[in-house]
Amino acid sequence: MENFIVKIRIETVDGKLVKENQFDTISITEVKAFDGTTSIVDNFVSDTLNEIRDNRRDNPHHHQNRLD
């Protein structure tokens, strides 16, 4: 199997980088073979989006948390 690099960039709509990472396809395959269901790419995306949500919840100035 050829080994490829998968690069993931999560950016805001304005193009501001939130987080990035890269994985090689051999590692992705090994993790899936070992675990059976876990994808390190899916986990990276989910964890990043959850961090963004948590940061917004903790920010009193975020529009969803404002009382006025």
Q: What labels would you give this structure?
A:
elongated; 2 helices; two-stranded antiparallel sheet; single chain; alpha+beta; 22% strand; 68 residues
Overall description:
The chain has 68 residues and is of the alpha+beta class. It has one domain. The chain is built from 2 helices and 2 strands; from the N terminus they run ββαα. Strands 1-2 form a two-stranded antiparallel sheet. β1 and β2 form a beta hairpin. The chain is elongated and about 50 Å long. The protein starts with a strand and ends in a 10-residue tail after the last helix. 0% of the residues are buried. The mean pLDDT is 83.
Summarize the structure in short.
The chain has 68 residues and is an alpha+beta fold.
So what's the overall shape?
elongated
Number of strands: 2
Distance between the first and last residues' Cα? 57 Å
Q: How is the biggest beta sheet arranged?
A: 2 strands, antiparallel
In sequence order, what are the helices and strands, one letter per element?
EEHH
Name the structural class. Answer: alpha+beta
Instruction: Provide a count of the helices.
Output: 2
What number of structural domains do the residues give?
Answer: 1
Q: Rg from C-alpha positions?
A: 16 Å
Helical content band = 40-55%
The spatial strand order of the largest sheet comes to: 1-2
Q: What topology does this entry show?
A:
Layout: E1 5-11, E2 17-24, H1 25-35, H2 40-58
Antiparallel strand pairs: 1-2
